[in-house]
Amino acid sequence: MSTTRPTTLAQPLLRPVGLGDLELPNRVVMAPTTRARAANDGLVPTDLHVAYYGQRASAGLIVTEGTWVSERAIGFINVPGVYSEQQVAAWRRVTDVVHALGGRIVQQLWHVGAASHPDHLGGELPAGPSAVNPHEMTFTRRGFTATVTPREMTAEDIAATVADYRAAARNAREAGFDGVEIHGIGPYLIPQFLNPRLNHRTDAYGGDAARRRRLLLEIVGAVAEPWGGRCVGVRLSPYWTSGDRFAPDERTLADYDELVSELNHHPVAYLHLRGRDVAAPGDRPDFDAIARYRRLFDGPLIANNGFDRETGNAVVEAGIADAVSYATHFIANPDLVARFAMGRELACGDQATYYAGEAEGYVDYPLCGWADGRAG
Ligand SMILES: Cc1cc2nc3c(=O)[nH]c(=O)nc-3n(C[C@H](O)[C@H](O)[C@H](O)COP(=O)(O)O)c2cc1C
């Protein structure tokens, strides 16, 4: 075996860290990954979910796939929810196994807002901040389908949505999770409200940046209630780019600066930041793009997007992030922490099974070979 491989102590990623009330034995976080394996009418997690998360219990923290807070939140087929009794009971089996194997797991709470489609909503129009088509694609039973012009959410719709998040957070607690994470990335409900190109409201939830971020801050307060502590993470993607609606510029970045500073005054366990996309796979992520938020947010920060072992250790060593999350590497390497610790090669995932299929490409990625020092 090579003697040049880094020892675990030399790797900042393998040192313990606290994120709010969560105590992690290492800083290698499993990023949320929608895998669309809840192929049943009730959108209930199955034995496959138990195996998938159990296999990855050595992560410092697992963040589940985005999980629907209500039927109104749905915008992708076969994604599980956390709004029914059956779903809560099934998630309990997942958290029990992860805990029995020594892990920690938080539930990501998701609502797609205007990025849904009548096919997901029993024929009804999706609702968003304003009647503006986000021009996204949504995956329905017919395949990728273009979004439509949604209806504008009423004040009652907004109150009901905040209540859905609160109920989902309570359900997550009942299901044995260690906390929840608010899904605030991509083109979905929360970034739609933050975005002046999609939010044309003139009430308390639109008009200026402070009003556009009000929904998120109300959701933070609502989901924190059942936890009574710092167990709520917030995930944001200020650099998200898609179509003509999400294009970061000085104005939108300034709005995110204010939002992140404001989060210091709310019960947030950690900020989970998706940084700028790398130009090509294997390129070094832009550390400055993450450091911008490190300067603004006083609490723990998880960095994401395009990291490997070397750049993950470097961003923690530089004091820019407290932990690093990995999505695609955790899909193909259930024992990612062991591979980092032992300096092993990483396997590549099969993209064809990322968002569809059953056990194949989900729970059948092998562990690395411990004895011979080669990748499994
Ligand atoms: C298959 C797949 C599913 C994803 N699902 C989610 C999700 O449910 N919630 C979320 O916030 N991000 C989701 N993401 C984004 C990832 O968490 C992450 O930001 C992205 O893959 C970049 O990280 P990486 O370079 O470590 O893969 C998903 C990404 C992939 C590849």
TrEMBL record:
Gene3D superfamilies, A to Z: Aldolase class I (3.20.20.70)
Name of the protein this chain belongs to: 1,2-oxophytodienoate reductase
Keyword ATP-binding listed: no
One GO cellular component term noted in the UniProt record for this chain: cytosol
Domain of life: Bacteria
Keywords on record: Oxidoreductase
Xref: Pfam families: Oxidored_FMN
